[in-house]
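Thought: the user asked what choline-phosphate cytidylyltransferase looks like in 3D. I have the sequence; next I should run the structure tool and report back without guessing.
Action: structure_tool
Action Input:
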Amino acid sequence: MKRVPVQSEQQRCEALRHCPYVDEVCPNLPFTLPKRFMQQMQIDFVAHDDAPYVTTGGTDLYHKYKQANMMLATKRADGISTTDIINRIIKKFKNDAIE
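Observation:
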């Protein structure tokens, strides 16, 4: 929802497949999932950081999962965000060009 991803969806799915906490990767899904779909796929919870992701209508995208106790709040790690990674790559290329 922020920018064009650095990795393709296929690359992101492949990275997730190697996470020990992931049972199955389902590509090409909408940003939020209908409750019926979650029940059919036996999805127990949504894992995402606890920051509210507010839509243009003023609603937190994760509100329905939080209210249903289906939200597992994750913690962000310093230096792991896409922005941090992009900035490190740019800095490295700039430094390499100067040398």
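Thought: the tool returned a structure. Summarizing for the user.
Final Answer: Structure for choline-phosphate cytidylyltransferase predicted. The first helix runs from residue 9 to 17. The first strand starts at residue 46 and ends at 49.
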